Structures are given as C-alpha cells and as structure tokens.
C-alpha cells in the first residue's frame, strides 16, 4: 500500500509540474489576471517544493524492501553515476537565472522573456537538468537497491518523455524559430560526442 502511495505521489507531482507550466495557462493568467501572473512563478516554485518535501517525508516511513543486495561494484557505479548527475545538474543550473526560474525576482509584464540558453551543457543536450536528475536517481538505486529507489527511478523514467514533450511545446511557443533550429542541431537527451558545440 505504501509503495502505491509513493507512485501516486510522484504521479501527482509530475502531473502538476507539467500542467502548471503549460503556456496556455500562463497566457490566460497574463492577459486576464496580470497581478496573479506576476507571482505565478514563485507560487509554482513553492508548491513544487512543498510537494517534493511531502514525498521526502513519505520516503522516511516506507518499509525498506530490497530489490537486490548492492555489492561493491554496484555501489561504486552508483556513487559515480550519482556524482556525475549532481555535476551535470549544478553546471546546467549555473547557466540559467535561478532567481527568475524560481520566481524570486518578480517578472514584470514589460520585461522580455529570458534569453534562450544554448551554450555550455545546453549545447550538448537540450535537457541537461533532466539528465542530471536521471543520473542521481539511477545512482541512488544502484547504491541502495531498494524498492523505494526503484519507484523513484521508474516514475522519473515514465515521466521524462511526457514532460519533455510538453516542455518543448512551450519552448517552441516562447522562442519560435530559434528553438526549432536548436531542436534540429542539439539532441534531446543523449549527447553526440563526435560533434563540438558551444
């Protein structure tokens, strides 16, 4: 029962993450309730944090069930992959304005949208933040070998194609031809090591 609750919690988290980030919803808020829209990103970030914190609390009460007993090789590989994931995540986050991303710096209606980032990690893959998260979740599973870690990893892997699909639709609306060109030049998730970019 607790495992099902964990799956449903991640499902709710990912559903709200995609639904609240929809361009159509943001356009409606911007045109009909500009004062609400001004605070929208901050509300979105706070809600995301609360939901994620709720999942973390739930994890603490999950019974520990092993899928496999991690050996030294699995743990070594897990730490290596998770560390690589953290590095990718941090390097990607450094390239975007976190204050705008989190909604801490209030975006006025007259301000231009943030510039499309296509350099650094974003010159290798279009979604390096997701690559980093996948590395962290996969590494955690290899180190712990638990059912809970497998649920985290499985839910993320199910969500990624859906989340990326809707996120890219929003980005095409926001950036038009610039993003369409970027889509053609840079792979979505797995880098092409034979090409040099940025």
Total number of beta strands: 0
How much is the radius of gyration in Å? 18 Å
The percentage of residues in β strands lies in under 5%
User: What distance lies between the first and last C-alpha atoms, to the nearest angstrom?
Assistant: 48 Å
Mean pLDDT across the residues is 85
Q: Which blocks of ≥5 consecutive residues have pLDDT under 50?
A: 107-111
Helix content: 55-70%
Structural class: mainly alpha
Largest sheet: none
The SSE order reads: HHHHHHHHH
Number of helices: 9
Shape: globular
Produce the secondary structure layout.
Elements: H1 2-19, H2 23-32, H3 34-38, H4 40-60, H5 72-94, H6 98-102, H7 128-144, H8 147-175, H9 177-185
Task: Give a quick summary of the entry.
The protein is mainly alpha-helical and 198 residues long.
């Amino acid at each position: 029962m607790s495992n099902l609750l964990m799956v449903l919690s991640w499902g709710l988290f990912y559903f709200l993450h995609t639904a609240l980030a929809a361009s159509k919803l943001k356009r409606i808020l911007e045109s009909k309730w500009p004062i609400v829209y001004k605070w929208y990103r901050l509300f979105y970030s706070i809600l995301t944090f609360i939901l994620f914190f709720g999942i973390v609390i739930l994890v603490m009460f999950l019974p520990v069930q092993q899928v496999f007993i991690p050996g030294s090789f699995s743990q070594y590989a897990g730490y290596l992959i998770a560390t690589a994931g953290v590095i990718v995540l941090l390097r990607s986050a450094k390239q975007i304005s976190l204050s705008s991303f989190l909604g801490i710096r209030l975006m006025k209606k007259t301000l231009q949208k943030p510039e499309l980032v296509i350099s650094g990690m974003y010159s290798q893959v279009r979604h390096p933040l997701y690559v980093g998260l996948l590395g962290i979740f996969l590494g955690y599973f290899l180190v712990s070998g638990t059912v809970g870690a497998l649920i985290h990893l499985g839910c993320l892997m199910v969500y990624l194609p859906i989340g990326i699909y809707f996120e890219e639709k929003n980005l095409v609306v926001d950036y038009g031809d610039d993003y369409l060109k970027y889509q053609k030049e840079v792979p979505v998730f797995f880098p092409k090591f034979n090409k040099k970019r940025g």
